[in-house]
Amino acid sequence: MATRTEYEAGIAVEDVLPKFADAFPFEAFNRMQSVALPAIVQGDDNVVVSAPTASGKTALAEAAICRTLDAGGTALFLAPLRALTNEKESEWDRFEALGYSVYVVTGERELTPRRAERADILVMTPEKADSATRKHDSPRYSFITDVDCCVIDEVHLLDSDRRGAVLEVTISRFRRLCDPRIVALSATMQNVSDVAEWLDAPTDCTFEFDDSYRPVPLSATVETYAHGDNAFADKYRRLYRAIDLAQPHIDDGGQALVFVASRQDTVRAAEKARDELAERDVEISSRGDYEYHTAATELSNDTLRKSVVDGVGFHHAGLSKGDKDRVEEWFKEGKIQLLFSTSTLAWGVNLPARCVVIRDTKLHDPLEGEVDMSPLDILQMLGRAGRPGYDDAGYAHVICDGVDAEKYRQLLADGKPIESRLAEELDAHLNAEIALGVVDDIEDVMSWLETTFYYTRAGSAPDQYDDSASLRDRVSGTLKRLVDGGFVDQSGLEIKPTALGRLASQFYLRLDTAAAFYRLCERANDDETPPLDESAVLHTVADAAEFDSVSARRDERGTFGAVLGDEGADLDPGNRKVLAILRAGMSGTTPGELQSDAWVIRQNGLRFLAALRAFCERFSTPRDANLVRRIEARVEHGISAEAVGLVAIGGVGAGRAQKLAREGLVDPADVRVAGVEGLVAAGLSEGVAERILAQARELPTLSIEWSNMPDAIASGENTMGEVTVKNAESGSPAGVRLTVNGVEMTAETRYLGETTLPVGVFGGDADELVYEVEIAFSELPLRPITDRRTVRISS
To answer: Could you point out which of 261, 350, 365, 635 has its C-alpha 20 to 30 Å from the C-alpha of 663?
Structure first.
C-alpha cells in the first residue's frame, strides 16, 4: 500500500482537492476531517468513519465523491431519508456548477433511465437502491451496476428494526454485482471494527472519533416526570417538563428543539407551548419583528401561521415544502426559538439547537401499536444539541417514566453496538437473492451469507448470535423451508426460484403472506369451492402477516359492527381493524375512530392488493385478477362498485367519478356516448370534458359478433359457430372466457386486439343452451363485459 501524506487540521480545500474547491462551502477542513481525508482521497480502499453528530462527516462524503469524479467514475450517495435526498439535490448544485450532473432516484419520482445513466452523482435511499439492484438486469435500471463508489450516510441505520436488513442486503448485493468502493459514515458507535470487517476496510482506513471531536461539548441527562393513569394528561406533564428544560435557554436568547411522537403531537404541543410561554411572560425576540410577521402571513398552514409569530413552530413531513423551508430558515435565523418536530428531522435536515429535549420515548405505530422509540433515533436526536459557531455547549434531555430512566442513562453513557437485523427476515431476503439469480447453488448460499453483516457480527458476538457452524445450519434450514414452501426448486446442488418465489420477492412480501395469497388462488381454481369474491379478497389481505402487530383500541373495536356487521369475526382484533379500514375506504366514509391509522394501513393494503392481483394473473384467472383490481381501485378512490370503471379514465379520481355517477355515467362507455356536451351537462368544464373524453376513447372499446349461431337446434344434432371479440383501441391484457350453461368451454389470456373463439352447438337434454362470452381486463378496474346468445333445443 502506498504511503499516505497526513494533513494538518485546517488544511485548505484548495490544497487537497484543487479541482473541486468551489464544491465545498468552506475553505479549510476541520481537525476530524483532516485526519480521515488521506484515506479517502489518496487511495481506493473501503473506508469507515464513526464520528459525533455535527463533526463534519458530510464533507468526507463529498471528498469521496470528488475522488470518484476525478477518476471519471460514478458516485452513489445513500441517504437515510427521502427528505434528505431532496436536500442533497439542492445543496449539490455546487457540483452542477462544475459541470457534473446530480440525479435523485426515489419512489416518488418518475425514473428517466437516460439521465440516470449519464449522472455523475446518484442520490438514493437504501430502499430505492434495493429496488434498483433487484432490477439491475433490466434496461431501466442497468445504470446501477456502473457505480464506482457508494457512500453510505448514517451506516448505523443497519440496526434499524425495519430498514436495517434492507441496507445490509443491498450493500452485500452491490458488492457481488459490481464491487464499488464503499465509504461508510456513522454517528458514534461501539463496534466500528465490526462494520469495518464486514466492508473489508483496512485498519488505517477505519476511524473512530470520540466526543473530543464534537465541535460543541454535549451535556446529556435523563429527566423523569410524575407518571399518572391518564396517557393524555401524561403527555402534557412531559410537555411542561420539556418547557421547563427549554426556558432557560430561550430566556438567554437561545433555541430549543423538542422531539415528540407524531405529526399531530407537534401541532398540539406548539399550540400549548405558545400559550404557556405567554403565561410565563417569556420574552421572544421575534414578537416585534414586523417584516417577519408579514412573511409569516404567506404560510399555508393556519396553525403554524399563528404560532411562529410568537417564536414557536412545528415541523413534520405533512407540511407543504414551502412551509417546511420557511420553518427551517427561521429556526436557523433564530426567529423561531422553540420548535417541535418528529424524529425524522433528526435524520434529515441539519437543524441543531442549543437545547434538545425528547418529550416522547414511545410512539404509536399503525402497524405495531405502541413501541419504544429506537435507541438509534434517541441518540440521533440528542446529537442535534449544540450549534457550532454559536453555542459553547449543547444540552440534551430525555424525559421518561422513572422505570425506564436507568435504561436511558445507560444508553447515554455507553451508546449501543450496531447489530444486524437480517436474522428477523432471513427467509425473505434469501428468497430475494435466489429470485434475482444472485444465488444459484448451495455453495453460493453460504458465500452470500459470508458477505453479510449478520455473519460478521455473529463472529464477534457469538453469545448474542449463532456461532459460525450453527449459523450455517440456520441458513440451510431456511433454504429447506423455502424449498418445502414452493418458493425455490432444488435439483442436487442447483437451486432456482419458482414463480411463487419471484412474486414474493417482487412485491417484498413476507413468505407467510405470499403463501396465503397462493392458497387463495388455488381455492379459486377449485371447481368444488365458491368463486373468488370481494369478501375473500379483503379477508386474505387483512390477515396478511405484515398486519399481525396492528392493535385495536376499544373505541376502534366499537366501529367494527357498523362497518363490517359479522364479516371478519374470525380475525384477531388488529386484523379486523385492517378489514374495517379497507371496507370503509371502499365507500369513502371512514369512521373518525379509525382515521388516525387509516392512511398507513390503506397504503399497505393497496400494496398487498396489487401483489394479490399479480398472483391471480399468474396462478388463477384474469377474471379473478380483474376483481382484485376493482377492489384495489375502490379502496384507493372510495368509489362505488357500479362506478369504479370511471377511475380507469386518466384524470378521473374519486370526486369526478362521483359527480359523473350522479348523472348516470358509470363507465367509460357512458362517457364516450355522452360526449363533451353530456360531460359539461354533468358538471365538468368544457376543457376538462374534452380531456376526459379523449382519455376515455383510449380505453378498450369492444364489439362482439356471433357467427353461424342457429336460433334452435334439434336434439342429437350439432354444428359449429364462432364468437369474435374486437377491440377498436390499443390492445390491453385481457382474459376471454366462453361458457355454456355456466360450464367453461374455452378460455384464453391475450393482449386483446381481435380474437375468435369456436363455439360448439350440441343438441342435448337441456331445453336451451345459453352461451356467454366474458372479457375481463386484469390491469384495468373495468367491470367484465359479457354478451349472451341462447339456442333453443327442439325435440
So the answer is: 635
Asked whether the beta carbons of 547 and 573 are under 8 A apart, the reply is no
All three cell numbers of 512, joined, read 407467510
User: What is the pLDDT, as a whole number, of residue 4?
Assistant: 64
What is the C-alpha to C-alpha distance for residues 631 and 786, in angstroms, rounded to an integer?
A: 19
Distance, in Å, from the CA atom of 450 to the CA atom of 398, rounded to the nearest integer, reads 38
Identity of the amino acid at 220: A
Whether 3 shows a pLDDT value over 60: the answer reads: no
Residue 388 burial class via C-beta count within 10 angstroms: exposed 0-12, middle 13-18, buried 19 and up? middle
624: CB partners within 8 A, 6+ apart: 521, 524, 531, 532, 616
List CB contacts of 595: < 8 A, sequence separation 6 or more. none
CB of 429 closer than 8 Å to CB of 167? no
Q: Read off the DSSP letter of residue 349.
A: S
The DSSP-derived string for 117-164 is HH-SEEEE-HHHHHHHHHTTTSTTTGGGGG-SEEEESSGGGGG-TTTH
Residue 86, number of CB atoms within 10 A of its CB: 19
The pTM score is 0.84
Beta strand pairing call for 754-762 and 718-727: antiparallel
Do the Cβ atoms of 635 and 582 come closer than 8 Å? yes
Q: At what angle do helices 426-436 and 511-525 cross, to 10 degrees?
A: 70
Nearest Cα neighbor of 520 from 500, 501, 491 is 500
CB 584 within 8 A of CB 590: yes
Nearest alpha-carbon partner for 456 in 495, 419, 500, 498: 419
Q: Is the pLDDT of residue 350 over 80?
A: no
**β-bridge mates for residue 726, sequence order:** 703, 754
| Alpha helix stretches (DSSP H) within 437-498 | 442-450, 453-460, 468-484
Question: What are the cell numbers at 673?
Answer: 356516448
State whether residue 268 is helix, strand or coil. Answer: helix
DSSP per-residue codes, 746-757: EEEEEEESEEEE
Residue 658 CB coordination number (10 Å): 16
Residues facing residue 394 across a β-bridge: 218
> Other C-beta atoms within 10 Å of 657: how many?
24
pLDDT, average across residues 648-672:
91
Paired residues of 489 in beta bridges: 496
Residues 6+ away with beta carbon under 8 Å from 231: none
